[in-house]
Amino acid sequence: MKEIKISDYDKAFNLDVRALVNVTIECLPLILKAKGNILNISTIGATHRGPNLSMYAGAKSAVESFTRCWAQELAKDGVRVNCIAPGAIETNIWNVTDLSPEDAKKHKEGMTNFIPMGRFGTGEEVANVALFLVSNEASYVTGSIYFVDGGAGAP
Question: Does the annotation count 56 as an active-site position?
Fold first, then answer.
């Protein structure tokens, strides 16, 4: 926190909030016409915060607030708005960190210890939740935040 700069805020909020709002505003006429869905992406970090993540967690918290507000505002128009909050997901990000391969492996192992299911999730598991949320199977679901985190965010 002591070394955060306003540019860190700008980067996080431009990427995670401003871009989301801009795309939604631009696409909204088509979404309304189709009575479609808006599906936002957050993180378990928005509700289960940690040190050195304030800008990221703050931006993703804003995403979740927009999700809930828009769900209420657009429900009468037949548009559903939901959000997925993934936890640790096995992606290529682990190959592009500033950590050495050994330190990255230790970090992943440490994170895995806090996941009740004992493993990272997969992109396919996140996609399955997304498919459900935009399907007719979820026709009465709006304003929800779905955690895809192996139980890491459970109280």
Answer: yes
